[in-house]
Structure formats: structure tokens, C-alpha cells
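=== RUN LOG ===
request id: a7f3
mode: sequence -> structure
chains: 1
length: 708
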Amino acid sequence: MSNIDKYETRKKMVYDFMCDDMYVPMKIKELCIVLGVKKEDRPQLEQILLDLQAEGRITLSKRGKYSKSEIKKTVGVFTAHQRGFGFVTVEGEPDDIFIPAEYVNGAMHMDTVEITISPVTTGRRKEGKVVSVIERGMKQVVCTYEASDNFGFAVPDNTRFGTDIFIPKERSKGAMSGHKVVVEITSYGKKGKKPEGKVVEIIGHIDDPGTDILSIVKAYDLPVDFSEKIMHQVQNVAKNVTPADMAGRMDLRDWMMVTIDGEDAKDLDDAVSLYMDGDNYVLGVHIADVSNYVQEHSALDVEALKRGTSVYLVDRVIPMLPRELSNGICSLNEGCDRLALSCIMTINKKGEVIDHKIAETVIKTNRRMTYTNVKKILADKDAAVIEEYKELVPMFEKMAELAAILRKKRMKRGSIDFDFPETKVVLDEDGHPIDIKPYDRNVATKLIEDFMLIANETVAEDYFWQEIPFVYRTHDKPDSEKIAKLSTFINNFGYTLHIGADEVHPKELQKLLMKVEGTDEESLISRLTLRSMKQARYTTACTGHFGLAANYYCHFTSPIRRYPDLQIHRIIKENIRGRMNDNRREHYESILDAVAKQASETERRAEEAERETVKLKKCEYMSNHIGECFEGVISGVTEWGFFVELPNTVEGLVRVTDLTDDFYEFYEDTYELAGTATNKRYKLGQKIKIVVDSTDKIMRTIDFKPAE
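=== RESULT ===
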């Protein structure tokens, strides 16, 4: 036995001795006697005690007595990494707990686990060990099936599920090699044995159209179909608005108003109106009164809460509410009487809301407008389109005027506008991508954005001061550590951030983004700024929205596709009708925390699924361009290579192993790779020509090589 092994054996013996129920705290002298430690071995015992203290396993009292530390156990959700380590998210902990690979203890992705947190941190983040798995998170996994003679293997799509799953032949459901399948795990495998499972559904063959997207739908457990009970409820919903429905509502049918959406939008849930009152603008934001048709606690409502949001995948929409509702009676279709919840705001020339009214209304939109046509009127001055909509043009011009005032006011207070290009994937009828391009953000999309923001702020502020239970959209201040790191990094490019008493004002980040606009490093610094910020979420406490530099904010404008909006519509209507008594307040106080949590979680799930489908189609699109040369910009640098983003928003990796002209070292502080012999550098924001080398649809990765 080596000296190290002897030392570790003795260390374990000392610790086990202190863990014994019969042990009473002792001084080192007493420990020497009880353990029979010779005089010459005492220095080693002292070292062992120091080490055990440093590891947080034992403590030393003021009286010089040693005892076992009371290790606090914590419960959280485990996120696995394909390299073996993982992270545990614990409620109340600001950062995830890092779990080294040797301490994962059989935990798998999304398991609920019990951990101990080490009092000693080697890096910046806390470390821990998994003590036990409380509940398995992934009971079903989407896999690609590989058949053998008497059994099969299922290879999980999710690379975080680090191993194949063994499938006995009789449990394969007749699946063949290349089938995408849903596997239910029957045994999670112990002591080197693979997990076992059974095929519960065959999605389709890997090459069949639509199978790839459907696999992602299944992987994220997105509910697709509505039950018969729900569809029966929907069938009973009236198809038209009756005089009885209109009773007691403000009648705004003679107001000039329009919907402005994308060409292919079917669920038109917001209309806008504008007229002048002297020098003041009277802006109406009219939202479909969905809560009139979706009653609290109904099967429809329970399902909507479960879904939390509509999910917009590249080739389909999975709606929160059945299409019969969202595209029918709840859609503000041109020329149709519709019930709405309206926020009517009087706004002065400075962009201040000097008066407002939130009311139940009945409306009739004059025209269904598209972003394209409004842009043609306002920006392109297209004579034919102006002629077609001539009765509306003066209103659009006033709208553009007001939107500019509101935007200027927001910018002045420090609102941060991340103008990242979103990806639009164009598919053929078989679901294959034929084009990938950035989404167009134009004067019309921004106009609607500005109006929805002011309505959301106005409603949130109103209900905050009324002290009525509510669901807010909040965005916490960034961690001071992350901001300090960002500040250090941008110094390399000659930029500075003014950080106040341990926190940064959104205006500082906004100024930074404005300074980098149009520079090589714009994309990089914008991304790093975004990464240094927290995620927005739904809460019952109105703690403000950092990114918008707003003290009050909520989501009011999309009850067809977001549950929080539907939830607050109910609260607003009860309040308008004078029914918000102590009983109802208590009711809402008891449910809203859970609603906010569910809405935040389903939003994350939807975002991830949307991102995965886009990555998949980008991968498929680029697989048709292997060997072709493109120019892009370096968007990220790591020790294993650098990422290049092309003008169409596709991103690929150039691996350091493919940089054969030199040995490259990674410099973390400046995010660059430098050749040790040539001093050739690859750094963020740098333009570079690349060749598409390979794609991997399963991993959803694209590899580039530098063009010669």
C-alpha cells in the first residue's frame, strides 16, 4: 500500500470513528489515546484533522474539541451534462450547484435529488455531492431504435441521458432499426448495468417527413391533442356575439380600429385604435376577451394552465387553446362583433399616460392589416397601398408619431433593446428547409411592440396601487459578479461600465449596446450582456422589469396564447364588476404563486423546444451545403474552438483540432485563440471565411473549417 493510500485509509478511519453514534467530542490528546496513535504519528493525525476540517466534514469547537459536521442536505433538480458532470438547481439558491462526475451517484437528467453542499469551493460556484435520487425525472425518453437478433438498443436523442437503453425483443413493439420511438424506462441500471426499457410508441422512421419535429414534441412532453370533453365544451361556445353578451359593456364598434399581424397569423388577439383629443393621443389597446369563454376550473381552463403557453415550432403551432376558439370567436376578425377587454390611454406629447380606463367592451375591427402593408404605408410610401387604405392612413401616421414618442421615452429611462435577429425557417410541403433568413423587425412590428408595452405597464401599475392579487412579469437585476465580469471583459475593447453601489443601472447597459452598434464586436458584446442578465419570469410580487427599466410590468395583451394574460383578465373583470371581495382576494392569493411558477416553467419548455426545432432545421439546411464557402463572424470562442455565425443566423463550430497551421492557446480574459508560433489570432467579432465541413442531425451541430 502506498503512503497516499495509507493516509486516506487512516483519514477514513478517523472520520468513521467520529461518525459513530457513541462518539463524544474529544480534544486531539484524547483522540491520540483512544485511537492508540504513537507520538511519531501525531503530526499525521493533526494533518488529517486539518484536512477533514477544510472539507467541511468535521468542526473544531472553541474548547478545542472535534466533532462531525452536521451536513445539511438539500433537495433540487439535477441537470446532466454529456461529459458526466452536472448541476443541481435548488430553490432559493441564486446559482446552480456544480456536481463533479465522481459525485453524480447514478443521478440522471431531470432527477429530483438530495445533495450535500461542500462548504469549500474550489471555483466560483458551490460544489456538492448527490446523496440519493428521490424521484426520477425522465420516465420516458425519445430514442432512435437499433435492432439486434434477440434484443434492441434505444439511443436517446437527449445527449444528456448519457447511455443507451437495453430493450428486450418482446418489449420492442415491433420497432425496426431507424425508427424513432418513445421508450418507457423500466430499470435505471445499477453497478455498470445499462438501463432497461420498453417501447411504448413508434413515432415514425427517421427519414419520414415530420418525424424529426414530432420527436422533439414528444421529448419535451408537449401536449398536442385536446380531449373529447374539452372539444365538447368548445362546440358549445357561441359562434356569434349576442345582444345579451354586449349588455353592460362599452360599445366601441364605431371606433376606427385595426389588427396588425403577420400574413399567416390566424389568432388575432389584439386590435389598436387612435384618435386625437386636442394635443393628446387617445390610444386604445383592445384585447380579445378570452376569459368570457374559458371559465375558471373548467376542463378547458385546467388544460390551458397545464400547457401554459402556445408553442411555435418551425412547422406547426401547438396552441394553448383549441383553434376553434383561438381562430374563431376569440379572434378579432375584420368586420365581426367581438367582446374585448380594452385599455384606453390618454397620452401627452411627452409620452406620459395622463389618464386611462380599463373596460369591458364590444368592438368591430375595420381592417385586418399586415406588418408588410403598414410598413409599405409608413416607410416605403407605396402609392398603391396608401390608396387602398386611404381612410386609415392618417391614423397610421399618428400611430407612428406616438410610437416614436413612447420609444424615445423608454430609451431615455434606460430600456434595453436587444436587436438580435430571430430566425425564420422557410419549409417546403415535405417539411424540408429551403431557406433560412433573419426575421424582419420593421416600423410596423415596432409600433405594435410599443403599444403593447405601454398597455402592459399601465395595467400593471393600476393593479399594483390597488393592492389586488396579480401576476406580474418581472426581470430581476443582474448578479453583481456577472456584471463585474462583463465590465472587465469590455475593458479589453476600450469600453467601460459605471457600476453603482454593487449594482448596475439598465441605462448603463443600454449605453454600452449603443456604443458597440455597427462595430466588429457588436454581436459578441450584445450576447455577453444578455448572458449576464437574469431570465424574466412571472411572479406575484411587483419587483420591476430591469430590461425595460420599468417599475411595473405584466402580460395583458395575449390571453389566447399565454395563461398569465388570461389569469389577470379574470382578476380585472371581477374588479371592474365590483366582485373583488375578501373571499375572492383570498382565493387569488392562494392560487397565483402556483400559476406564476407553472407559467414560467412552461414558457422555458416552449422556448427550448422552439430552439431545438430551429437548430434541427438549420442542421438539415446546411447538410445540403457541405463543402461550400461562406463568410461569417466569430460569435464565440472556447478552449475547444470557435463559433462562426453566418448572415442567415446559422452558427457552426470550427474545432481547434482543425486549426492545423499552428498550436493555438485559449485566452479566457480576451476570448481569443492565439497561435504560439505565428501569433495568428481568432477573436470575437472577427470576419472569417469558412467551409461547411459536416452536420450531425442527432446532436444538432454544424462543423465548419477555415477556408484556405
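=== NOTES ===
The chain has a mean pLDDT of 90.
The chain has six domains: 3-68, 73-135, 140-208, 228-476+538-612, 480-533, 625-706.
=== END ===
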